[in-house]
Amino acid sequence: MTRVDFHFNVDDPLDYGCRLARKIFRAGERAVFWCADAQMLSEWDRQLWTFSPQDFIPHVAADDALASQTPIVLSSSGIERPDRGLLVSLGFGAGFGSSAARDSGAMAAAQQPSPPQQGVDDTDATPALPPFFSRYERLIELVSTAATERAAARTRWRFYRDRGYVIHTHEVGKIQPNKS
Predict the structure, then answer these.
(1) Contact criterion met (CB below 8 Å) for 95 and 143
(2) DSSP element (H, E) containing 107
(3) pLDDT digits (tens, 9 = 90+) for 77-135
(4) How far is CA 164 from CA 12, 40, 52, 137, 167, in A?
(5) How far, in Å, CA of 169 to CA of 180, rounded?
(6) Longest dimension (CA), the chain
(7) What CATH code is assigned to 3-171?
(8) What are the extents of the domains in the chain?
């Protein structure tokens, strides 16, 4: 059964995702990094090339001819990669970038319907879930400090818990008190 790890209170999911990809690559592991929003995934791809001048993290899109030979694969669609044991969910589009952009993006995302979940292999696909997550040994979900993203993560948490998945939590940062 898939182990599910939630990394909560990630202030900058793009930067955190880059550091996580570097850690996975240095450990000699292979992973799929998934984001429901193709534009956000493209932004993360650009950041992965530039976040650390001393590091090179080999990565390609899932449909690239070199995907089977590359340790880090990026996808915004429901792909199954049986050659990799780790799926990292960068999110569903909200929660990226600066806090102002993240908050406005989260508000816009809250007004949009959830993305279709093609390939979710559980019969109840009510919450938005990373496609094919249960075919991986481990799923890491990055959750920002945005209120709407945290609420969506709680829904996914209940989904996983109610189906018996082993869940681990990692508090990355602290929630800042609301200064209103």
Answers:
(1) yes
(2) helix 99-110
(3) 877 666 789 999 998 764 444 333 333 333 333 333 333 333 444 444 446 788 889 98
(4) 30, 31, 38, 14, 9
(5) 29
(6) 51
(7) 3.40.50.10110
(8) 3-171
